[in-house]
Every structure is written in C-alpha cells, then in structure tokens.
Amino acid sequence: MMPFQIVVLWSDMLVWLLVAAGVGLGVLIARNPPLRAAWRRVGANRVGMAAATVLLTFVLVGLLDSLHYHLRMEGKPGQPATYAIEVLSVLDALATPLRSRNEKTYSEPFATRLYAKESIDLPGGGTTRDYPRLKHGGKHLGDDEGAVVEDAGFTAFRAAAIAFVGWLGLVAAAGALVGRQPGDAALSGLQRIWRGETDFAWNAVLATLAAILLVVVPLFWLAGSYHVFGTDKVGQSVLYQVLKSVRTGLIIGLVTTLVMLPMAVLLGIVAGYFRGWVDDLIQYIYTVLNSIPGVLLIAAAVLMMQVVIDTHPQWFSTAAERADLRLLALCFILGITSWTGLCRLLRGETLKLRELEYIQAAQAFGVSNGRIIVRHILPNLMHIVIIALVMDFSGLVLAEAVLSYVGIGVDPTMTSFGTMINNARMELGREPVVWWSLAAAFSAMFILVLAANLFADAVRDAFDPRAA
Amino acid sequence: MLKIENLRLGFAAGKQTLAAVDGISFDIAKGETFALLGESGCGKSATAQGIMRLLPAAGRILGGSVRLADEDLLHLPEAAMRARRGGRMAMIFQEPATSLNPVLTVGRQIGEVLERHLGLIGVPARERMLELLRLVGIADPERRLDEYPFQLSGGMKQRVMIAIALAGDPELLIADEPTTALDVTVQAQILDLLARLQAERGMGMLLITHDLGVVARMAHRIGVMYAGELVELASREAFFSRPRHPYTQALFAALPEVSRRGLKLTTIPGQVPSLSVMPNGCRFAERCSHVMPQCPTVSPPWRELAAAHSVRCHWDGEALAEGMARHSVTELDIEPARPFLEVAGLKVHFPIRRGLLQRTVGHVRAVDGVSLSISAGRTLALVGESGCGKTTVGKGLLQLLKPTAGSVKVGQRELVGMRAKRLRAARRHMQMVFQDPFASLNPRMRVGEIIAEGMSALAPDTSSQARNEAVLTLLRQVGLPDEALGRYPHEFSGGQRQRIAIARALAVQPELLICDEPTSALDVSVQAQILNLLKKLQEELGVAYLFITHNFAVVEYLAHDVAVMYLGRIVEQGRAEEVLRSPQHPYTQALLSAVPVPRLDGATAVIRLAGETPSPANPPSGCHFHPRCPQAMDVCRQRYPETSDVSATHFVHCHLRA
C-alpha cells in the first residue's frame, strides 16, 4: 500500500491541462514548417532565450507545487487507511527543512537571534531582556555566533564551486549536442557556442543557467542551516513563502488571461468587423463595465463568492480545496472584469484592418466572414494579443498583490506575493523595520514579470513577418 | 548659387553605414530650376534632406560640401543652420495632408516662420501673411488665415505650404514631388504657381520628381539619378531631344503613349540594386541593354557631350533603344453582339448620420447614376480626378458596396439584390486588382495561400494537388518564379506584388478584371512591366478590363473605350480615339490639356479650371460642372444635361452639344 494518496485540486488540473496543451501545440508547431521557422527565430534571440530560461525555472517551481498528495496516517494493520488532513505538494516535500523549522517570530536573514527582545530566564534564576537565540538558524555554530560571516561565506563558496562544476557538465553536454549538428566542421561544438554561431542561442541559455545555478545552489545550501531570507511574524521561512507564491502568481496570471482572452478577442473582432448594432451593443457593455470602479466590482464579486463558499462547507473536504477554489474563482472574476481594455484595442485595430484591400479582395472572392476573421484578421492581430497577454500577465500578478492587500484576494491560508506584501504593510510600520519579507517578494515578482516581458518581446519580434 | 560637390550621404544599418547618395555634384544658378529625376529608392529625397541637413536619425553625412552662396552648410553649427532653413532655403513636401500641423491655424503656421526669420509679429506679420496668401492664389485670405488645415482642400494646403516656404524669402526652394499627391488639374495650377513665383523672385529651385511630364514643363536643367549617383546632366532641350544615358532612354521608352498602342512597352529588367550590394562598376550595368565588357568593373567617368550635357556612361552610341516587339494580336477588333457587363443607372449613396440617434441628415452621392457596358476582351477606362467616385463604381460592381439603386448585369444575370449564396457563385466572373500592392496582400499569408484563396472559396472541392498545379501555372503566367509560392509578400518589390495580386484575381478565371489604379503606386519602368502583362493576359485569356485610373498616358496606351467621370456621373463616353482626339465635354478638354506631356513641344495652352471638385454630399445644381466650366451658360445652372450623341459610340452630357 502506498504511503500517500494523490490529491488533484481543480487548479492542478488546469495547470496540467495547460502543460498538455503546450506540448500539443509544440507538436503542431513542429509539423508546420513556417511556424517552426518562427519559433527558431525565437530560439535565436539571446535576450528572449535568457528570459525563457528564467521563466522555465519559475514554471518548474510552480509545477512541482502542483502535484498534491495526502500522507497516510499511521494506523493499525487491518483498519481502513486514513489520510492526513494536510495536503502537501512535491515542493513541500522537497522543502521540508524550510517548512518545518519555524522560529517563534521575526528574524533577520542569516540571523542567529530573534528580531525582538524577550524576557529570558537565566539559569541562575532571575530574568533578563535580550534577543533570544534562534531554535534553528545557525544552530550548528553553537556559542560561536560571531562566525556567521565566515561560515556562511565559506559554505556559499563551496556550494558555488559545486554549482560551477555542475554547470561545466551542462556546458559539455550542450557542446556535444551542438557538435553533432551539421555546421562548420573546423570548429567544435563548444567553440561554436562561444562564438555565438549556433542557430539556438546556447550561449545566452548557458550564461543564464550559470547565473541561476550560482545564486540558487548556494542559497539552498545555506538554507539548510540559516534562514537566508529571514522569517516572518509567525517564524516561517520567507524563502519558503516566496517559493509557494510562485504557483499562485503563475495561476493568477495564466488562468485569468485564458479566461479573458477568448472573450476579448471574440467580442473585439466581432464588434470591429460587423459594425452596426453588434458593435454598439459590445461597446455599451464594455463602456458600462469600465465605468464601474474595477476594485469595487471585483470586491463585490469576491465577497459574494466568499459567502457562497462559507455557507457550503460540505463542498470541501480540506482547507486546501477551499483555498484552491477561491483562487480559481478569483481568476474568473479578474478575467471577466479585465477584458475590456484588450477588447477595445482589438476592435480599433479590426476597424482599420477591415478597410484594407486584402480583406476586400477576400470579400470579392466570396470568402465567408468566419474565414476572413480566422485567416485574415486574427493573424494580423496576433502581435497585439501577444503583447497584451504578457502585459496582462504581469499586470495580473501585480493586481493580485493589490487585491490581497485590500483583503479580497486569495484565501488567507494561501501564500501569494500579495499576502506577503499585505503583511509587509504592518512590518514596515513597526520600529525597527522588517524589510526582508517585502524585499524578497518584490525581487521574486520583479524577476518573474521582467522575464515574461522580455520573452514576449522576443516572441513578437519573431512572429512579425515584416521584421523577419 | 547652390553648389554641391561630391556629396555623400549614408544610412547606418547595424554596424555599417550604407551609402544612399554616393558622390553627386551639381549646381543651381539664381532663377534656375534644376530637376532631379529618378525612380523611387535612387536617393533623390535623401539628397534634398542632406542639403537641408534634415536627414532621419539613421542618416549620416559622409562627405562632400554643400555651398549656398559660398557658405558651407555642412560645417555650420546646428543653431546657425536653423536660421538658414526656412530663411535662405525652404522646402515643400510631397504630401500636403501631413505637412501641415492639424491643430494650428494657417496663420499660426505662417506666422511662425515670419517671427523666426524676419522678426515680424502682430499687425505687420498679419499684413505679410495676407500678402503671401494672395501671392499663392488663395481667395479670401482674411478668412483662410484663421482656418485649420482640415478646412482646406488638398490643393489649397499645398498653396499654404508654398506660402510658408516663401515666408522667409528664401533664395532656394526645394520641392520634393510637390504635385504627386494632387490631381492633374490642381497639379497644373500648382506648377504654374511655382513657375510664376520663381520667375518673379529669381529663386533657385531644386525640383525632385519622377514624372517626365512635370520635368518637361518646369525644368531648365535636369539631373538623372540612379542608385545614389547622378548619371546624366543636361539642359532641358538636350534632355528631351537627345537623351544619352541608357537609363534615361529606357525611362522614355517605358512611358505608355498613344503612339505605342499595340506595341510592347520597353521595360528595364531587374531592380535598382539594394544599398548593401552596390556593384563596383557602373551601377546600371546589370539592367543595361548596351552593356559592354568594362561596365561591370569600371565605374564610368563623366563625359562632356556638348555644352551643358554630360553623361556617365562607357557607351557612346546614340540610338534610342530599338526592337519593340509588336504584340502578336495587336488590337482585338471585336465587335461584340452582346456586352458581357451591363450597368444601368448605378447609384451608391452613403448616408451622413448626425446626432445622438444617428439620424440620416443627407447623402454623399459618391456614384449617382452610372451606366456602362463592357464586352469580352475589351478595356474600358474609367477616368476622373480623385473623389469623383471611380473606385466606388468598381466596388459597387463587385457588390462590395451595396448599390443604392440601379442594375449590374453580368452575362444577363442581375447582381443587385441577389442572395448571398448565389452572389458568391457569381463573383467568379468579376475580380478586382487594387491600387496599393502593399495593402492588398495579407502580410501573414504566403503567396501560395494568397493565390489559392479565391479557388478554395469558390471551388472548395478541388483537390489540393490540382490547386497547387493551378497556382504554379498562374505564377508562371504572371512571370514569377515557382519558389515564390512559399514566400511572404514582404519579400517582393511593388511590381512583383502587383503581379501576385493579378495572379490572385485570375485564379478564379474571371471574364472581367476591375483594375483600380494598378500602376499608380509604381515606378515608370515597373508600370511598363505591369501594362505589358495586362495586355498579354488580355490576348491570351480574352479577359475584359475595367481600368480605373487618372493617368491619361495609360488610358491612351491601353484602353479601347473611355468613360470620363465627374462628381459621381459619367460626363463623356466613347471610343478611346474619339474621346481623346476630339473631346466634347469642357471637363474632358480641360483634363486632357492639363496632363503634362514629357516632350519639348508638350506645353500647349492649358485650360485652367477654377477651384476644385465640389463635395459629392452637396453637388451644385444643374450641371455639376458649371461652377468650374469656362463655357457655362444659364441653362447649365438649372438643368442637368441629357445625353447627346456625337457619334454612334460617343456620348456626352453637355448643353453645348445638345
């Protein structure tokens, strides 16, 4: 009997469906020569590939966090198996040391003592007010608390050296791969990568990998003995929270865009192409939607959903399920309220396109309206859609932060960049200031959004036939 | 006065700088018009921008000198240069619609120059503005001064632009294609104005154009540019009587003209070489019909032929290019019993909607009762100025725009009011070739898909094998290589794109092709290729053309019948020879006289038309043409003239012929 039971949350299903769709799309692209050529151009773009490498790292974290299970409780043999109420993910399992080694409250990155003074009972009787020693952070140092810098520096260096060796292995593998491809026979694969003469931007990918490995490996190595990003109010590791937030951010960004996109594209094109009363109707809808303050609309919808969830506790067997459904509902609400901008943009562009001569030529052939939209209008709007998609992805990750800040975002039990920033509101107000939580959330979000933007640029450039 | 020596201009592309203008030298005397002639992409405009030091961001001045009355402009600091621009030299741009700022009044825009260069403000400035507007022939200048550009017509905008250019009393006027965007009658007005102003003020003028007709009317001396180099410098007489460079000769030979009817036009093979792959020797060598062994390697030096006539060419023959192949069937003398397309009383009105409830308050009568007929294998040219409704007729015929009234019969079947499904089948018989080859092909589709689109829409059951075959046949028919199939439109030049558009239209084997100014966006030599192609296709396939154009040279060369349109109606219709040789309607006469002819003796008396075409939303009462007609009578103001027969095939709507 397996020691665990797999739990499939709704959002997990969506995430893995998206992965499957991505793989399917990849197969389709591989079979279609012009599309393959376009993606090759993406592959040749150095900045784009560097951004993709960073994005993939985030996606990997998100995917690991999307495989959930229950642990089986210790029970007497013969009895039906019972499972723990707590739903864990593979990421949780991998990050068990981060998850389980909680302090009492705030502590600074690499600190050995708490951030607040407490009354400590002295062994000889009596009490003193001092910063108590952490339970886990820097425990191996014993009383030698001053040696943090040397110890951490040395550990980091050792880890970086190991990471570098690992990276060299990757470089060798890439070199061998390139070397097998046809090309200038005089140069080995490595030389070609070094000179940037490969079709795929290997040098950019390897350089980014080097940067990621040199940062990440020492970080996690140190995380075994220190709280590298500090701890929060209840003593949880901030690094762990950042890792957990990645999935929330990705889901908010992706699922919302997927909800919004069909609506914006369909309504925008239909309004612009058919004009007349259809156009009027759609314009009125989005003008009305736009004139309601967005946060108010979202707040109203979220509060209503919360009431529904609260009045039907029997729907959910675990707290994780409830938080998950709330996340998805938030995605849908955000999607339904945020399509107007893109819709308006696409309507305007379609109005311009429909007057172009190639559309008229198609009409002169008696090509049906549906076909004209799919073959002539949609492909010429794709660059706008791609740009809007990524801008919205970044915008939504940020919007989630704002919504959680006003308290109508994700479930309080769920970690997200928004809840982290929301907590930071109090932390920045206290004296002395707790800065690490906000800084960590900010940096992670910044890197994620920047990588997404750069990658979108590369994709758009590659798909523009005029620039190719 | 202006002396340019060995001027070299380039554009930065990535790490290298590509020379767009490579060592040109010429000078312009006071009161002289120097015309810079050449096809697009030869560096004409870059030269003008270089003289003004207004090159775009990527532009670099690589060397040489530009001296305006012994002052080296290229070494002046930018601040001093600003005093020269608009002060000592001024520029008129091609597109009057975009060269004026839409949110400033005319007065503000002229005043700007007066204040900057003459220090005039307040009342004296206003006086000067009124004077300037009168000078450029704008009626009622007091009112116009406080109007915005959108309240002015295209011709008036160009006049205002000229007034702005003159405001600083320049010694040199640079006119970059000043009339290309204007109609022929307005063009004649503007050219006259420029010539008059120049004579009065003794300005030097650098005229940049691709139109040999404009050159013949305006220029004193001519420089021909090819691929960034001057190849021939000549006085007007020498240029038009004895052009010597093979490129100049080819330009002349490529012009469509009535004397070349039934002859194949001479074309220049290939294209202007791109900046990155400029040949070492003579840049024209690859396309030249007189190429000699040294041409591709040795750049030819200047050779003085006569006073004020020099040429850069190794070849010293003189003969104009010979050997125009006659078409096998020159003129199809078809006397058809039954016209293929019959249009009667076609009207296309656009409602003008105003107010909250979008109430219809009037109609733009774009097409107001047009009747035409075309027989198989013939070409009907529909001629008129912009805004007269020619293009709307074409779209109305194809039912791309729903006609308000009238009938369109194709092979006896009525198209107006036909159900969508049957209409689709009927579309097979008529297709359209559009004006702008850059807007008429979907940039995201490959050429093969573009051409096959019509076939798959109208005959969905053909196998993809057969369709592919058909596409290849079409590509060969229009003279494109087979591998064009898998490429995108942006990889082709304008002429090649127009071939693709023609192939797409022919794909469904139509009996009638509506060509909407198919050559107006193309250079002369490319235009000749397309016209040759159209003629060849007519011969081979017997397809009829409705040729919508404003270019009379093309009409003379190609058309069997001509219909002249003015403000939504046909004013004169007949056989090409009849209409062009003995035009009966005053409008036709004025149009024909306004066309600049690329010959020395071309300057016949131009019939001036007052004003510009009125708006079709509010056409004049009676005969639409009467406010501009030099021979208007009382009856013209009251009644629209009936059809009068001049001959069995020649009709005119004019009270003079009634």
Helix content of chain B: 25-40%
Radius of gyration over C-alpha positions of chain B, nearest whole angstrom? 26 Å
Give me the CATH fold name of one domain in chain B: Rossmann fold
Greatest contact pair? A-B, 22 and 32 residues
Number-wise, the strands of chain B total 24
CA-to-CA gap between the ends of chain A? 57 Å
Low-confidence region ranges of chain B: 323-330
Which structural class do you get from the secondary structure elements of chain A? mainly alpha
- Which residues of chain A sit in consecutive blocks of at least 5 with pLDDT less than 50? none
Mean pLDDT of chain B: 85
Shape of chain A: globular
- Main beta sheet of chain B, described? 8 strands, mixed
The number of distinct β-strands of chain A equals 5
Query: CATH superfamily membership of one domain in chain B, which one?
Result: P-loop containing nucleotide triphosphate hydrolases
Order of helices and strands of chain A: EHHHEEHHEEHHHHHHHHHHHH
Quick tags:
heterodimer; A: 468 residues; mainly alpha; three-stranded antiparallel beta sheet; 17 helices; B: 658 residues; Rossmann fold; eight-stranded mixed beta sheet; 31% helix; globular
Describe this structure in words.
The complex is a heterodimer of chains A (468) and B (658). By secondary structure, chain A is mainly alpha-helical. Chain A contains 17 helices and five strands. A three-stranded antiparallel beta sheet of chain A has the order 1-2-3. A two-stranded antiparallel ribbon of chain A has the order 4-5. In chain A, a hairpin with a 5-residue loop joins strand 4 and strand 5. Chain B is α/β, with parallel strands linked by helices and 658 residues long. Helix content of chain B is 31%, strand content 24%. Chain B has 21 helices and 24 strands. In chain B, the strands form four sheets. In chain B, strands 6-7-8-3-9-10-12-11 form an eight-stranded mixed beta sheet, with helices on both faces. Chain B is globular, with a radius of gyration of 26 Å. Chains A and B meet through helix 14 and helix 15 of A and helix 13, strand 18, helix 14 and helix 16 of B.
